[in-house]
Amino acid sequence: MPDEVLRVENVAKRFGPVTALRDITLSLQKGEVLGLLGDNGAGKSTLIKIMCGFHKPDEGRVLVDGEPVELQSVVHARSLGIDTVYQDLALVDELSVFHNMFLKRERIRRVPFPMLDNRRMRKLARGHLDEMGVDVPSVDVPVARLSGGQRQAIAVARTVFSDARIILLDEPLAAMGAKEGAMILDLVKRLKEREDVSIVMIAHNYVHVLDVCDRVNLVQDGRIVFDKPTSQTSVEELTELVVDEYRKARRAASNGA
């Protein structure tokens, strides 16, 4: 499709005797927010790690902008505009907000000798966070002093700031209260309004997915068993589907015993 920015096609992944993914095909359109649902162990995180270059598929292929690509590493994927915000956020607690925004992307002033250009990094970080609507008291405070929602928002903003156009969010709402979760959902909505950033978001809460996502995929036992626009589904349908898949798995396990 002309607006397809990322495609995983017929991908399988095994870890020894364990099959994590079985013939997975997933597509992501430009400006789309795709919600990825599924139980723990269903294969969601493995799929994210293949899309970001951390794992290589045993079968199938990955296409970026319609072209087949063999992702060599996370750094290679990042060079193509694909970046991931993991649950651990990869923030350094002791560093300031603006230093975390430029982590491994530091601006250097080379006259009269090389040193960090803190003034410029501080100004750019403040402007970018304000533009994205991320509310932090100061870009000079250590991130350890911020709330979980603020920390998550900084990790997402850093990814956008580094020119990522495909963002993979690995359970951004995990262990967050209602207020902090709402902050991240609002941030995802603002990114969607830009129409130049595409997002895959792993989530567990069906209401959140229906609220911010354009489309939903449900992963069960290493397969995508459901793919629908969120405007054409409901919490009830998703719940019923999950229960049906669980019953099928139980019956299959019983028959194999």
Description:
- The protein has 257 residues and is an alpha/beta fold.
- It is 37% helix and 26% strand.
- The protein contains eight helices and twelve strands.
- The chain has helices at 44-51, 74-79, 97-101, 118-132, 148-161, 178-194, 206-212, 235-256; strands at 4-15, 18-29, 33-37, 59-64, 67-69, 82-85, 108-109, 115-116, 166-169, 198-202, 215-220, 223-229.
- Strands 6-9-10-3-11-12 form a six-stranded mixed beta sheet, sandwiched between helices.
- α5 runs parallel beside α6.
- The radius of gyration is 20 Å and the shape is globular.
- The mean pLDDT is 89.
What is this entry, summarized?
37% of the residues lie in helices and 26% in strands. The chain has eight helices and twelve strands.
